[in-house]
Write a structure and sequence with these properties.
Elements (H helix, E strand, L loop, with lengths): L2 E8 L8 E9 L5 E9 L8 H7 L4 H5 L8 H10 L2 E4 L3 H13 L8 E4 H6 L9 H10 L9 H19 L3 H7 L4 E3 L18 H7 L3 H22 L16 H5 L7
Parallel strand pairs: 1-4, 4-5
Antiparallel strand pairs: 1-2, 2-3, 5-6
């Protein structure tokens, strides 16, 4: 089993994908090193912000800027991340987000993999609830202060120490621990939202169309019935004597009223 522990550092938070270092450690299921901790430097092709330059950057600016850019290491990073049986990071959503942006920046396809989030995993246990951040969690679980903090390979190694300590104290192998806490696994590329499927027998959008034209069919039938009514009324009025003027009632003849024939003058 190959377990990859990794971490990244960014030059400027205002420049998405401005990765300047990718650090990693590769071990087996017994945490024996298959590859020593390594820090890959790359030119972020942007200016470093003041905080990173003064408090985090562990190399000289000239050393970083003389390195190759992200595309030169893309295949190597993709092989590491997708080729491992288990990838582990501490709050790796920041790293995976920067990785996606770097790929978009250089028109590359983001590598797709799952990553165990050690920050989420540690919060699952009642142990050391007071610990925060990678350094605080390592001190609480490992009783050691991590070295080379804020350097990618140093943080990757500290993540390995933390994962090993959790496995040992909980009596679980790495594979079983990752399976038991599968809800702590995050995807490197978020899944696309599912599209709502139209009900069987209906075309897409038909339900919405029916909703906007509610009672349309009934109105049409009602109008058709109304159109037939004038014809029936004419047939009925044809059998009745027509009224002579406005609202006056039809007058009966004198003969009909008296029973006598009308006299002519």
């Amino acid at each position: 089993m190959k377990i990859l522990f990794f971490d990244m550092e960014f030059a400027n938070g205002k420049v998405p994908g401005s990765i300047y270092s990718f650090g990693y450690v590769l071990t087996d299921a017994k945490f024996r090193l298959k590859h020593p901790q390594t820090d890959i430097l790359m030119n972020p092709e942007c200016a470093f912000n003041d905080y990173v330059r003064k408090n985090i950057l562990a190399y000289s600016l000239s050393t970083v800027k003389s390195a190759s850019t992200f595309p030169a290491y893309y295949k190597r990073l993709k092989k590491l991340l997708t080729g491992a049986d288990l990838a582990v990071g501490f709050a790796p959503q920041n790293d995976t987000g920067a990785l996606r942006h770097a790929c978009e920046r250089y028109n590359l396809k983001p590598p797709v993999f799952l990553c165990l989030d050690m920050e989420r995993l540690c919060k699952k246990f009642a142990d050391h609830k007071e610990a925060h951040g990678l350094s605080g969690c390592v001190e609480a679980w490992c009783k050691k202060i991590p070295s080379n903090q804020h350097r990618s390979d140093g943080d990757a190694y500290a993540t390995m120490m933390l994962f090993r300590a959790v496995c040992e104290q909980k009596g679980l192998e790495p594979k079983k621990l990752a399976k038991q806490f599968a809800d702590c696994m995050i995807p490197s590329v978020p899944p696309e939202p599912k599209k709502k499927e139209a009900p069987a027998g209906k075309q897409p959008g038909k339900a919405q169309q029916e909703q906007t034209t509610k009672n349309g069919p009934q109105r049409k039938r009602y109008r058709r019935r109304r159109r037939r009514r004038p014809g029936n009324a004419q047939a009925q009025t044809a059998q009745k004597p027509q009224a002579t003027g406005g609202n006056s009632r039809p007058q009966k003849s004198t003969a009909a009223a008296t029973g006598k024939p009308n006299e002519t003058k």
